[in-house]
Automatic annotation (TrEMBL):
Its cofactor is Mg(2+). SMART domains: DAGKc. Belongs to the diacylglycerol/lipid kinase family. InterPro entries: ATP-NAD_kinase_N, Diacylglycerol_kinase_cat_dom, Lipid_Phosphate_FormReg, NAD/diacylglycerol_kinase_sf. Residues 1-135 form the DAGKc domain. This is Diacylglycerol kinase family enzyme. PROSITE patterns: DAGK.
Length: 311
């Protein structure tokens, strides 16, 4: 089997020694070529060309941003060519997608699990989410969000450019800062789901393709605990932003069961084929923990059985 190993050398949680060990282990099991990403969207370009180059498997080492790029590249495989299977190894600060698949958070251990699955011929097919707008047409693996969460992602990316390292503590600090400063007290969002009445005056709106939505260190954060790669999309939105209500909901998100389908201060949707989020004015928007810019309307679609996964 020919495999392409796409490595983000800037990945925050791996070392050159670990990358060397992982590369050696993989190369003993497949015919391997290694490519290091050099700029934003480079992983997307490499993955998009993988089928044409004759690769049957693409492996990535990086964070959720690298995963998102590789997945979008693979979904751009030219018609008539067999899309390579995908295996993702953790190299970022959160690695939400990889951990949601049930793989170890340690990259060396995750590589071992992927190689074991490869030797045993184990693979699975998962669904993805897809967004479309006047500026976008791309896939996401685990979440997309308007409002507070996207503003936090934007702020974290901004301070990372000044040398700060991403961490759960940094994300939590930014979330608290924006909340206390009042920057997120903007109820301009509206969610429309076919077969349901529109819901207006929302402060935050999330669309998920699996659970958890993210991690607080080792703790899964679950606003949509029924979300699953094998189902359609789930949605969650805040109808209130009072300090006591918000604190209560955050604690529920951190609990093993997550937030129930119905309750005070929020609304949720489960297993939907599509939904649309509108804003009265441009708001911060993110997919898979990557800030995309400000948007006023985004359409979301569930794409079943979109990708073959090893591991």
């Amino acid at each position: 089997m020919r495999a392409l190993f796409i490595v983000n050398p800037q990945a925050t949680s791996t070392t050159p020694r670990a990358r060397h060990v992982i590369t050696g282990a993989i190369a003993r099991n497949v015919e391997l070529d290694v490519a290091h990403t050099e700029y934003r969207c480079h992983a997307l370009e490499l993955a998009a060309d993988a089928a044409s180059a004759g690769y049957e498997l693409v492996i990535s080492l990086g964070g959720d941003g690298t995963v998102n790029e590789v997945v979008n590249g693979l979904l751009a495989t030219p018609a008539g060519l067999s899309r390579p299977a995908f295996a993702a190894l953790p190299g970022g600060s959160a690695n939400v997608f990889i951990r949601a698949l049930g793989l170890p958070g340690d990259p060396v251990e995750a590589a071992g699990a992927v190689l074991e699955a490869l030797r045993e011929g184990r693979q699975r097919t998962i669904g993805l989410g897809r967004i479309s707008s006047d500026q976008d047409d791309r896939y996401f693996t685990f979440c997309a969000g308007f409002g507070w969460d996207a503003a936090v992602v934007h702020e974290v990316e901004r301070v990372r450019q000044n040398g700060r390292r991403a961490s759960p503590t940094l994300y939590a600090a930014m979330a608290a800062k924006l909340f206390l400063r009042g920057d997120v007290r903007d109820s301009s969002l509206r969610v429309e789901v076919p077969g349901h009445s529109p819901v207006r005056d929302l402060y935050l709106a999330l669309v998920t393709n699996t659970t958890p939505w993210t991690y607080a260190g080792s703790v899964p954060v679950q606003p949509t605990p029924r979300s699953d790669f094998r189902l359609g999309l789930d949605g969650f939105a805040l109808t209130q932003l009072r300090p006591t209500t918000t604190a209560r909901l955050v604690l529920r998100m951190l609990s093993p069961r997550g937030i129930p389908p119905r309750g005070r201060g929020y609304v949720s949707w489960h297993d939907q084929e599509s939904m649309t989020i509108h804003s009265d004015h441009p708001r911060a928007f993110q997919i898979d923990g990557e800030y995309l810019g400000h948007r006023e309307r985004v359409n979301f679609h569930s794409i079943p059985k979109a990708l073959r996964i090893i591991g």
